[in-house]
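Dear all,

This email documents one entry for the complex benchmark we are building for the journal club exercise. For each entry we list the sequence lines for every component of the assembly. Then comes the predicted three-dimensional structure of the complex as a token string, followed by one or two observations. Please use this as the template for your own entries, and keep the labels exactly as they appear.
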Amino acid sequence: MELVLEMKEICKTFYGDGIVVKANDHVNFTLRKGEIHALLGENGAGKSTLVNALFFPPDSGVILINRKEVDLDNPLTAIKDYKLAIARQDLSKSLIERHTVAENILSFSEGFFLSITEIEREIKKALQKFDLGDINPKAKVWKLSGGEKQRVEILKALITNPDILILDEPTAMLTPPEIKSLFNLLYQLKSKGVSIVIITHHLEEAINFSDRITVLRHGKVVETLETEKMRDHRGNENESIRYLASLMVGKDVLYNLHRETIHSGSIVVEIKDAIVNNDMGDTVVLGINLKLKANSILGLAGISGNGQRELIEGLFRWRNLESGKIIIRGKDITNKSINEVRKLGVAYIPEDRQKALVFDLSVRDNLMLNSYKLSPSFFINYSEIVSETEALIKQYNIKATSPLSPVRSLSGGNRQKVVVAREFSLRKGKDLILIAENPTFGLDVGTTQFVREELLRKRAEGAAILLVSSDLTEILSLCDEIAVIYKGKIMGVLTREEATRENIGLMMGGANLSSSKEVLA
Amino acid sequence: MVNTILMFNSIVAAATFFLLPTLGEIYAERSGILNLGIEGMIIASAAFSYAIAYSTQNVWLGVLFGMLLGAVLSAIHAIVSITFTRTQVVSGIGLTILGTGLSGILGRGVVGKAIDTLENVNIPILSEIPYIGEIFFEHPIIVYISYLLVPICWFILYKTRIGILIRSVGENPEAAYNQGINVNLIRYLCVIFGGMMSGLGGAYLSLGYLNFWSEGITQGRGWIVIALVVVALWNPLGAFLGSYVFGAFDVMQYYFQLLLPTPVLKMAPHLSTILFLAIWGIILSGKKVKSIVGAPTALAVPFEKS
Amino acid sequence: MKIYGTEIYFQKRIDPITGIKAVFVRISFLLLGLGVAGLIFLFNGINPIQAYYDMIQVNLLLIPNTIARFIPLLAIGIGLAVPFKTRVDNIGAEGQYIIGMLTAAGTAFLFPDLPAIILIPLMFINSFILGAIWAIPVVLFRAKGGFQGADVVVSFLLVFPALYLMEWLVSDPWRDPETGFTYSSLLPVNARIPKIPGTPIYISIFLVLAIALLIYYYLFRTVNGIPKTKLGYEINVLGKNPLAGRVAGMSFFKVILITMTFSGGMAAIAGVGEVAGNSLRLGVKSQGYGFTGIAVAYLGGLNPLGIIVSALFFAALKVGGLALTGIPSTVLQLFSGIVIFFVLLSEFFFRFTIKSRKLS
């Protein structure tokens, strides 16, 4: 089988602020004509960096296309001359929200004048051809749902009729039927000779749909294997998943979490009939009721973009509620300030790290973000803060050159440890209310284990915890109760015993509690 | 007795001073770069073009050099903001201060010296239309250039490929970069265009509108341009409307001298701009509105190539 | 950037330059900037070397004048450093300065018979208050969102009403009946700030230095990374990442209200020092300290200690300007603008270095 793409000894290093990261360390990667090649690895393993080397030159290495060496020094060369296309994972770096779908897909326009109607026509044709559903090319991108945006991004890549197609986490925001369509489409393209690289962290997708798998770890290739051979060798899907996971992480990974059975305590937080709008004025939370109890973890599962962010922002008072009430420890805080909510013992680990850390300031500065105001006067209690921050650094094993190092220089895992250390220590025992949004996203295995254990520990100590996560494994292993959100409504609340991957998955896709029970019966 | 035709004619003349730099800054801001140095560029160019016109006895050379100076000054801001990714606000303030300082030096030889400045050119036929003709078509050529620039700027921004590239760069430079668009080049071009337009505005001020040079003749009106870009909603057509409204304010102060004390009149343009900004700011911050109109999303955000 | 087969690019430094090293880098860039100013002089028919030499000479002769200029520049510089740290750019300091002058003169004209020990502090207090009020619109625009640069535009626009107000007062109600020129009458004797006995230095220097050191101690100085006051900490956080500050419960509005009030007040105090010390009467023009102050604050690295040095430097520059006959007063602004750009460039080099690599 011919090799349509060869990447040899690719190296790319990122510098800055006390750290040097070898994102790609002599990586070798090949792509055969007409194959689907899955690229696996943890966050930070170097997958996105590797495919980016096809669009922006790496530090060193050689790239061959159709066995001839090429010089890909800017995206246009790759796209126009060599018929590469990429659908990126981070859509905020790829789609322009304020423009229309048509204005985002400019590959048709040449020359000075712009014929929008022609572009719109081509888009409609392409949507049909690739079975990507019904999207209005005149629609502004910000109005589209997460899944629609993802499909626009995929369309953007496909519309140029590429020979080599790269998809970076294409299924993150798609419902199961949409995922099925996508893979059908990929098989069709495959049969036409298109070669496909798919980056995914859904190991089942890689196992079931790819021809070969390459696993990256810490910037190096661990192994490239033939999928079918591996499947046969390992026996069943679960074993294959375990094998791949161990390749990704370097050791056998079983998140062994010690979970006590505790009776949940009294209701600490109540959200009543909350209605919240997003930044654009659309109503994205349509009357939600939730109760948080002490000594328990309530999970909020759902595909991102279904209103969970706005709900949390409303709960935390970052955003106003259009209507409804929030009651914390008996107090109606619906119109209070963030500061007052904090005083009631509410700790918050936001998904957006920008909201949690000041990168230019030191570890110490970031650790004292909540506690600095505890002293009664205008002055900060110097000795208290010093001892407290040093204790936290020790307790949470935060690896930094000194407490004065800027947080920017810490690794991703250590940065999150700073956030966790600070927020978890806001209050003790029953006084703590914790809201955590995807707290282990992008973290390495060790830190992920650590954070999950901490959550369980705080739960045992009496805290009331709301865990928002798109990681079903995390939700299933940690939560006492699980609420599933879909398009701004709660589809149902399951107890730990009732919850399974299947019924949660169905509810995440729009089925409500009763209908999912029917489906699964 | 108020001669309305003369008054409206003056409004056109005043408005043109606002219009030219506003069109330029719209392009700069649409590409994502905020250039607060407009006042500095205008006043430096006003001095420089007057000085060149005086020494070469050629008004149009003066205009040309005024535009060149505007381009050079804006390039400084561009280099610091784009290549060195420094904060655009401070860089712009520095440019204003620098430009004002430069104006004193450049113009010191020609303070109070009179020269033949741009004459009014009556456009045949059009200037004979009653009322309209005297108001719009009896001006220096630069005014007519400004009439043409409005639809041209609008067309390029909204109906051409380069226009959408500019707007993409200003909305989401990272996405544009990933598509292979040369973000920095587009930003440089837009900023320098803005500088040339400010330079043209300055040259017009000293050579076509006020017809003299002395320190401080802008009276801070360059800052009003920055507000105008917002009032115009970053649209050349809006620039035309806004400039004429502000031009009217500027001219009216002379016509109401008997009704209001002088200092109040002199402050009128500045105070009314602040008022406008307050009202406009309140209207524009409504959430639904923000999604339809508003500043380019990446305005004044430094872009670092990853 | 590619030239002749090599590519020149910027790379983030692994360890950014800070501390003493940073001061040296800043000074070297400052010297570069003076060189560029010299070039501009050259292009305009002025001999730069002679010019700089004359400027230094004048300074050595007129040290009291330098100190007299130093006081207002320091006051404004300190006043600006505080909001600048929260990334609120008060460039209307010139207007607040003028309002300070007007309030001081007004207070003096209203109560000429009060003993100096009451009148002078009263002048300072009134001016601080009105200067602070003149700065409030900036806070409102910043707090209400608005768009990029709204606060900057508003703060600058407010300079002109202040200027025109002064022009009018001096031409009409306050015009000196004795001379008939557009100056106000001399300030009453009780309103004049005394000098340190035996020296030509006004005692207001103590006030300003004291404020500078207090601000340094309470807001800027950190021990083991910890500032002395909560406000100092909040200024740091909000200046670097207002989002994180808000999540922690900080009130951006409260902090910028305090900082801008202080800033407007300090600029006004500078005005009092000027009108009740140096000039003793109002004129139609203003010294332009408000804009120089911006450069003073930046050159000083937004740190009171650095600003003390920087204010001295600019005071020397201003006095030196007296030696440059035939060059208009705007030359000080020329220097200020150049300094600002070179400081910005120097800060770039704290974080980045230039590297080259050969292309195959």
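Observations: The first helix of chain C runs from residue 19 to 43. Chain C touches chain A at residues 11-16, 223-231, 233, 236-237, 240-241, 243-251 (CB under 8 Å).
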